[in-house]
């Protein structure tokens, strides 16, 4: 998973081995609530996951001397991994009892937790399933508001909702890194408005060549290494 706007060859999203692979590896856990009777719409879940990543990055506990700051720094110094798991009923209640932040979309609920070592998940989260996050949009999502950030998904890849949620989170994080402190504050104060949409095929080539933050997947799951998955189209970066 590499992004083209970083001049460094040591990118947290690059599929080739880099110095980041020598650092201790962490993962950002995201848990989406999927109750059998009322699962969220796919786009709602994707947008809520992307916002959850931004909420964690901007939380006072994640910066400076905050209680999560060291582990967030360690995570960002290594590979930027995110794993989405699903929970319902008692599983969701157990997940909610752990330190983290629940972000709510239209209906979707996603809880984001401070990063954990790759092989050191809390048992309440380790038990949760990664598979089974196949969600649908009952009706096509409305056209994205061009004045707000849009995370454009590749039209060429078939990703599960869980995989797409993680990729949308990567895109949001790349946009966040590229913004100035003032631009970050404005986005945060507005409640992190954003849309996640699949790019029209004709537009995708344009977007990937635009210089906007681009996620290339490292290929740990589902798709081939180096696949372009998301372009983060934030108005301040155009």
Topology:
Layout lengths: L25 E8 L8 H17 L10 H9 L3 E7 L2 H7 L4 E4 L4 E4 L3 E2 L5 H4 L23 E4 L7 H18 L2 H9 L5 E4 L2 H8 L5 E3 L11 E6 L5
Parallel strand pairs: 1-2, 6-7
Antiparallel strand pairs: 1-4, 1-5, 3-4, 6-9, 8-9
The 3D shape can be described as globular
The succession of helices and strands, N to C, reads: EHHEHEEEHEHHEHEE
Number of strands: 9
Q: Could you give the distance between the termini?
A: 22 Å
Could you explain the architecture of this structure?
With 238 residues, the chain is α+β, with helices and mostly antiparallel strands. It contains seven helices and nine strands. The protein has helices at 42-58, 69-77, 90-96, 123-126, 161-178, 181-189, 201-208, and strands spanning 26-33, 81-87, 101-104, 109-112, 116-117, 150-153, 195-198, 214-216, 228-233. The strands form two sheets. Strands 1, 2, 3, 4 and 5 form a five-stranded mixed β-sheet that branches. The chain has a four-stranded mixed β-sheet with strand order 7-6-9-8, sandwiched between helices. Strand 3 (101-104) and strand 4 (109-112) form a beta hairpin. Helix 1 packs parallel to helix 5. It is globular and about 45 Å long. Residues 1-12 have a biased composition (Polar residues). This is peptidyl-tRNA hydrolase.
Offer a quick outline of the entry.
Helix content is 30%, strand content 18%. It has helices at residues 42-58, 69-77, 90-96, 123-126, 161-178, 181-189, 201-208; strands spanning 26-33, 81-87, 101-104, 109-112, 116-117, 150-153, 195-198, 214-216, 228-233. The model is unreliable at 1-9 (pLDDT under 50).
